[in-house]
Design goal:
It is built from 18 helices and twelve strands. By secondary structure, the chain is mainly alpha-helical. Helix 4 packs parallel to helix 10, helix 11 packs across helix 16 and helix 16 packs antiparallel against helix 18. The longest helix has about 35 residues.
């Protein structure tokens, strides 16, 4: 019997004997210790440069400890980085078979069943730690107790426990029990790299860029705290009288000092304490806040590509929508990269261990479902239906997610009773509804015929149904028809204009801020399309009125 060698995407063999074992667990007294250092304490430019140079030479320990410290101490950074990681980790999964065969579908189904596990989102969040640090390694613990080879656990491994080959500083390796670098076992690790910039893994993480901003912001916050402590309270000046002894002076000094913390003191009648307020404190302290906010905005740009979804920024035409689109672009890129990583390091060994080597393998896709603008679709398709384009009702029901009504079910109809179906098979009951007084403002009865070649509207269809039933033909009210045409023409322009305003509403944190944004953006709001639509409507109304007068004369 011929046996096939199982290898991962890198050509490394899958050793079944080691796949079920935990090969990279923490050892408190060994080289893979969970205890970390804190190189961020007292960080200055010289120390930060030394830490980064160590990483460039292949020693990532202090750099990874610093990256962890920045996440723990910078509330803004951990917020935006967590947003980016969670936005991808919670996206829905789809699994596509390798081909159209039943066997490929069986492979895909087994993978789909495993992806239903409750811990998956947490596992993917850990895998996406590579966004901040440049790389992440997750150990797969395989289980065969139920007959199939299934990943029982995905264990995050500390990035300090990995190294890179000396010849290229790119090939990942791990530390064994003795601290020696050894290659990663095939089918045993999910090795993830999502680079913020091109280059070596140890130089491609966002943490390397953010570390500088965090250090400078720490300086600013330290100075701000000193300023607040020093100038946030008035200066106390004690005065003693003539002939005061040293003991009296010491008593007065203690009183002045205690007022700062205890806000209480007692002194003899012969002594005085004055409070000197320092002027323009607010303006001076705003410099610290502005610098901290500016650095936070740079971090937002580095992590999310924009600032509008995290920082309250007044102004910017339609900034909410455009900035959200930038964030979605990054989300799609991260999701595509994560899917590729899982297909390479998880799906391939998963299928090989259970079904043997394959020519093609199932593929995981991670993406946000496309959200169709149903209002725009309805606006676009309605004129075609009014002009006689045959459209299946089942297609409309499916597009809007509606169930087709069953026989005998109550059906919602338009107000006034007019709900004619487009086409030759108009409902006679709907046709009778044209006698409703509520519709006399739209049509009036008089004998006549329709000219060939004119566009057929829903109202004309109902009129033909009346004619077939032996009734008079209603004439279409030109005002109602012009109103409908104006709605169709102006709707896209209004939607585009309102989209810009809605973007400001999404970003604004108060009505006052929204007012400022509207006033700032008003000169740039493009209403030319709406103006053209209104001009065409007024022109058509004027010409129609002249034609009606000429006809009556």
């Amino acid at each position: 019997m011929k046996t096939h060698l199982l290898v991962d995407a890198y050509g490394r063999p899958l050793e079944r004997s080691t796949l079920t074992e935990e090969v990279m667990g923490a050892t408190l007294g060994g080289v893979r210790s969970p205890i970390t250092g804190y190189p961020g304490d007292g960080l200055n430019p010289q120390r930060l440069s030394a830490i980064l140079r160590e990483a460039d030479m292949g020693d990532p320990v202090r750099y990874m400890e610093l990256a962890e410290t920045v996440e723990e101490r910078d509330l803004h950074y951990v917020g935006v980085l967590g947003t980016r990681r969670r936005s991808v980790a919670q996206l829905p999964f789809t699994v596509e078979p390798g081909d159209d065969s039943a066997e490929a579908e069986r492979h895909a189904k087994l993978l789909r069943d495993w992806l239903q596990r409750d811990e998956l989102q947490t596992d993917l969040f850990d895998v996406l730690d590579c966004i901040g640090k440049g790389y992440s390694g997750t150990e797969i613990i395989w289980d065969t107790s139920m007959g199939d080879w299934m990943p029982a656990r995905l264990e995050r491994r500390d990035p300090r426990w990995f190294r890179f080959a000396d010849h290229d500083l790119t090939t990942p390796m791990r530390l064994d029990e003795s601290g020696q670098k050894i290659p990663l076992e095939g089918g045993k690790f999910i090795w993830a790299q999502i680079a913020a910039k091109s280059g070596l893994p140890l130089r491609s993480g966002i943490a390397r860029i953010v570390a500088w901003a965090w250090m400078f912001k720490a300086f600013t916050q330290r100075d701000w705290a000193i300023f607040t402590q020093t100038y946030g309270q008035p200066v106390r000046v004690g005065k003693w009288g003539t002939g005061a002894s040293e003991a009296d002076k010491a008593t007065l000094f203690r009183a002045v000092a205690n007022i700062a913390g205890d806000m209480a003191a007692i002194i003899p009648d012969s002594m005085q304490i004055e409070f000197v307020e320092s002027g323009n404190v607010g303006a001076a302290s705003s410099n610290y806040k502005e610098r901290s906010d500016w650095l936070d905005m740079q971090v937002s740009k580095a992590v999310l590509g924009q600032t509008a979804t995290t920082d309250a920024v007044t102004g910017g035409l339609g900034s909410g929508k455009e900035h959200r689109q930038v964030q979605e672009d990054i989300e799609r890129s991260d999701a595509s990269a994560l899917a590729g990583i899982l297909n390479r390091d998880l799906v391939r060994p998963f299928v090989q261990l259970n079904f043997g080597p394959q020519k093609v393998y199932p593929r995981i896709k991670i993406a946000r479902p496309d959200e169709e603008d149903l209002a725009a679709f309805a606006t676009a398709v309605t004129p075609f239906i009014d002009r006689g384009l045959p459209v299946a009702q089942s297609a409309i029901y499916a597009r809007f997610g509606l169930a087709e009504p069953k026989a005998g079910e109550a059906i919602l109809r338009a107000s006034g009773g007019g709900n004619s179906a487009a086409g030759d098979g108009a409902d006679p009951e709907d046709a009778k509804g044209t006698d409703d007084p509520g519709r006399k403002s739209e049509i009036k009865r008089k004998p006549g015929v329709f000219k060939r070649g004119k566009p057929v509207s829903g109202m004309e269809t109902a009129a033909r149904a009346l004619q077939a039933a032996g009734g008079d033909i209603p004439e279409v009210d030109p005002v109602a028809d012009l109103t409908r045409r104006m709605e169709d023409l102006a709707a896209p322009q209004m939607e585009r204009l309102m989209g810009q305003i809605e973007g400001m509403v999404e970003v604004a944190t108060s009505l006052e801020e929204l007012r400022e944004m509207l006033l700032a953006a008003f000169p740039d709001l493009d209403a030319s399309g709406l103006a053209r639509a209104l001009a065409m409507g007024l022109l058509a109304a004027g010409l129609g009125g002249r034609a009606m007068v000429a006809e009556d004369e």
